[in-house]
Amino acid sequence: MKKSIVLILSLCLLLTACGSKEKDKEKTAEESKTTVTQEAPKETTKETPKETSKDDASKEEKTEDASKDAAKPSDDLKTKKAEAEGFSFEYPESWQAYDLSELNQPMIKAAYADPAPKVAFADNVNVTSAPGNSGVTAKAIADLTVTQYESGALGDAMKDFKKISYDDKDKNSGVLIGEYTQGQSGIKVVLTQYIITGSPNMYTLSISYTKESYDNGGKEMAQKMLDSFTVNKK
Fold first, then answer.
1. Burial of 56 by CB count in 10 Å (0-12 exposed, 13-18 middle, 19+ buried)?
2. Nearest Cα to Cα of residue 92 among 117, 119, 128
3. pLDDT band (50, 70, 90) for residue 154
4. Can you tell me the distance from the alpha carbon of 224 to that of 76, in angstroms, rounded to the nearest whole number?
5. 91: which strand partners?
6. 86-106 b/e (C-beta count within 10 Å ≥ 16 → b)
7. What is the DSSP letter of 118?
8. pLDDT, tens digit, for every residue of 75-95?
9. ∠ CA(187), CA(99), CA(133), 5° rounding?
């Protein structure tokens, strides 16, 4: 029972990540063409000349640059809310829903991905649901998952998996974080999985970021997605 659950979670994770990558390559190509033909003109500001000392000008430039930099994090952390039968959560505003019919995996209930990845891997999030068992702990499932990931059973899709951390949460849930290399591209990926056990259903929120994305805002967004995930009680 436990092994089958772990296999399902792994399969869903990999299908979403790889599927998003292939689909997003096509979208990126189309968006690149649009950018070339519809490039917006650069903004220019004309002001009446006035006497300004070099020191004042330097201070003004630094203030403007600091304001721009300060605005970036808040923009990058904008989210939309996904609501489905049994659960809801927030995901990055710029990400797009993935066509679940292409996966043919009924246990995947939601999936969103970056539509314009900079590399051959699309940052993504997906939610799986499977029949729950109140007698199985989140830690037990996480331990089995780590064992499978580290065994190399997933082949080239997930290589050199290393567990970073595991933390128990309220109501028999837990968060597993690990890092692996996608063999096909050689890209390092950070995987965060929020496991919520219970009955009648068990949910897993799986968030995959390239290591570069994770270190540049992805970690904060992943935490925001984790904090927002809610199981809707009937």
1. exposed
2. 117
3. confident
4. 12
5. 80
6. bbbbbbbeebbebebeebebe
7. S
8. 567 999 999 989 999 999 999
9. 85
- Give 186: exposed, middle or buried? Use CB within 10 Å, 0-12, 13-18, 19+: exposed
Work out the angle at residue 223's Cα, subtended by the Cα atoms of residues 208 and 21, and round it to the nearest 5 degrees.
Answer: 20
Helix, coil or strand: residue 47: coil
pLDDT tens column, 22-68: 444 444 444 433 333 223 233 333 344 445 555 555 555 555 554 44
Considering only CA atoms, give the Rg of the chain.
21
Sign of the Cα torsion 59, 74, 217, 155 reads negative
Question: Which long-range contacts link 228-232 to residues 24+ away (Cβ below 8 Å)?
Answer: 228/79, 228/81, 228/88, 228/89, 228/90, 229/87, 229/88, 229/89, 229/194, 229/196, 229/203, 229/205, 230/87, 230/88, 230/89, 231/86, 231/87, 231/196, 231/198, 231/203, 232/85, 232/86, 232/87, 232/88
Q: Are strands 173-182 and 187-196 parallel, antiparallel or unpaired?
A: antiparallel
Would you call 73 helix, strand, or coil by DSSP?
A: helix
CA-to-CA distance for 25 and 168, rounded, in angstroms? Answer: 37
d(CA 98, CA 63) in angstroms, rounded, equals 41
Could you give the CA distance from residue 112 to residue 122 in angstroms, rounded to a whole number?
10
Q: Is 144 helix (H, G, I), strand (E, B) or coil?
A: helix
Tell whether pTM > 0.85: no
Q: How far apart are CA 221 and CA 54, in angstroms?
A: 40
